[in-house]
Amino acid sequence: MNIDFLASALINDTNFALQRIDSEGTETPNSTGTRAFFEMVTEDGRVIGYIKSWHESDDYAGFVHFDTEGNIVDWKTFAKGIHRKT
After folding, report:
1. What pLDDT is stored for residue 26 in this prediction?
2. Which residues of 10-27 are buried (b: 16+ CB within 10 A; e: fewer)?
């Protein structure tokens, strides 16, 4: 999923930055799409949550927002065509 689109979908709280977690196995491209994982980080470097996102080859995409204890805070899915770059 496009990180700019993901950030705009998380408009409830704009006092953070999304930082991709780049460790082995966090982004898993396969024949059906891509999955990526992010930390939500405040300006002072504190992690306030996590995001797991996916973007399937048929343009179905979405994310799950977790707090620091692993509880689901929010989730959204997006149908084909809603998140395409123009």
Report:
1. 44
2. beeeeebebeeeeeeeee
Shortest CA distance to 20 belongs to which of 32, 4, 44, 8? 4
- Quote the pTM value: 0.70
Decide: helix, strand or coil at residue 47. strand
Domain range for residue 15? 3-21+31-78
Residue 37 domain-assigned (yes or no): yes
Alpha-carbon 42 to chain mean position: 16
The number of folded domains in the chain is 1
Is residue 57 in a domain? yes
Which residue, among 48, 51, 45, has the nearest Cα to 21 in the 3D structure? Answer: 51
Dump pLDDT digits (tens) for 20-64: 887 545 445 555 568 889 999 998 999 999 999 988 878 788 899
